[in-house]
Structure prediction request, 141 residues.
Amino acid sequence: MADALRYRTDAPADEPAVTLDAFLDQADAASVRIEAGDDVRHLLPHLARVKLVEIDFPRFRDGRGYSSARILREAGYTGEIKATGDVLVDQLLFMRRCGFDSFAPEAPITPAAAERALSAYPYVYQHAADDAVPVWKLRHG
Prediction:
């Protein structure tokens, strides 16, 4: 899909993302691409200059990208985290909960299908990187 399914209100980053190694070698890079197997924790000291983190999913069943997004959000990163690659509509809600806010899947996903996936479940059961309040906490206030 040429345009990412976006769920942010700010403007997208206007420069191409570079690999993690290239990002760490360049003082002026602001967009970084995390490949499967990259340790996103190397990026943590540089979060102030990062505008975009693209996290690649080489196969839909490779869940390492979820952990990378969560690590970034828990470290305080507030910029854009984009899921790229083999991203399926069924994964969007879980990716959102881990901290992803835009998606660039290889296979097209219509905005309507994405919206249905993201709003399929009105309640959640556990805390995550998003601000959803777990249903048990709503019940027991």
